[in-house]
Structures are given as structure tokens and as C-alpha cells.
Write a structure and sequence with these properties.
The chain is 50% helix and 0% strand. By secondary structure, the protein is mainly α. It has one domain.
């Protein structure tokens, strides 16, 4: 999808400490990376993915 990205929602999510630590260890914008991983997972599960 090109253009203006969809607005993000604030949520509360519980993650395993080691998972969160790993993402935080990757540097700034770790929340964006978590979102990207979740988006890739969702897209891979949609019909006609890939």
C-alpha cells in the first residue's frame, strides 16, 4: 500500500520478557519492527498470499 500510512492505535500488549528484550536490543523503533513482524505474519496467512 502506497501513500499515507494508516493511523496506528495505542494498545496494551503483554510480551515475553526475552522477546521484548530482543526487539529493544535491535535499537530505536523496536515497536515499528514488532508491527512489521506481525504484519508479515498476517499477510502470510491471507488467502492468495505470496
Amino acid at each position: 500500500m502506497l501513500g499515507i500510512p494508516a493511523r496506528k492505535q495505542d494498545i496494551h500488549i503483554r510480551l515475553d520478557a526475552d522477546v521484548l528484550s530482543w526487539f529493544k536490543g535491535t535499537g530505536r523503533s523496536y515497536q515499528t519492527r514488532i508491527n512489521n513482524v506481525l504484519r508479515a505474519f498476517v499477510q502470510s496467512r491471507r488467502p492468495n498470499a505470496g
